[in-house]
Sequence to fold (423 residues):
Amino acid sequence: MKLVILLAALFSGCWAGFAEAADAAAIDKADTAWLMISTALVMFMVPGLGVFYAGMVRKKNVLSTIMHSFFLLALITVQWVLAGYTLSFGPDLGGIIGSLDFLGLNGVGVEPKGTVPHLLFMSFQGMFAAITVALITGAFAERIKFSAVVVFSILWAFLIYDPLCHWVWGGGWLQKLGVLDFAGGIVVHISSGVSALVAAIYVGRRRGWPRELMAPHNLTLTVLGMGILWFGWFGFNAGSALASDGVAVTAFVATNVSAAVGTLTWTFAEWAHRGKPTMLGAMSGAVAGLGSITPAAGFVTPAAAMAIGLVGGGLCYVAVTMLKPRFGYDDTLDVFGIHGIAGTWGTLATGIFASIGASGLLHGNPGLLLKQAIGALVTIALSAVGTLAILKVVDMTMGIRVTTEEEIQGLDLTQHEESGYSL
Fold:
């Protein structure tokens, strides 16, 4: 009997050692290093977005605009750790939402999640949540209470981002349907863009817009932010391969190519249309190209990426320069006209051009385009209806918009009692 117990102990010890070795083997050091870098790159994009946005507002609102992005990086990080991650990536409940198994990161440690530690995967995905919420703030910049931004953002993360993320990436019903979103065309850009449009309309125009000139106060600041965004987007897209492999390289190259073509498209379109090319236009084109390629990055060739950036740059130029004035909504920093339009186009373009790891319309699979259209329409509906409901609740309970006097004085002083410039 003693011999049996001894053999059992030896066997269990060997098995535990084997299991530990298997877990260690499942974590790839190169993949882990790349995803750690990518997580940092996407994190850097959030304050970079704040700087990008801040240069385009008036100087009396520069710090309040940066504050939105910077504060939300912290706020959504905590929300993600406590409950956002488990709702997004917890075990599937009916295709609708994740379970509470990972509440407070319970059970989330350094065990493998694919070829990287689970905690790292969680952190990478959390940065996407943070930047998505921050993107929306550009729509109502210069006229919203900071307290309203905080409450709106928490509710939006729980009620819109987390369910949508689960539907597309966490094992939910859109993922099961076969909808593709490599790095966030649906989850990030369509959701934030459509929500931004609803918010801009609900909150209302800035006092004096469009009669008064509200030119960017510091485009040099915006150029700095754009550089950070383009740089960080390599982690955003190529990092979404979740591995240091050929798919990551494909996404890396597609990202740069589409951004470059989007820049050229907007610049030449503006040059032909208005007679002068502008730095603001070039940067807008770059973001249009980046947003357009995001859902397709790992699925398309460089040639297809050029086509996606070309059409994306053109569509966003039309949306910002023609549709916005025609309909008269004051989306301060053109979140819908660039991110919403680019994300929608890129999602559909995935269904047209996909040829790596999936086949789209041009490669004999028209069904993928239909699935992509369903994904886009569902996201538009959820974002529009959900955002309107959240805005109504926030407005009824605490109010959303600052007073006329506060808006005239500027949000830096009235919301934060500080100024971006002392001279």
In short: The radius of gyration is 23 Å. The beta strands are 92-93, 97-98, 112-113, 116-117. The first strand starts at residue 92 and ends at 93. The chain has one domain: 32-416.
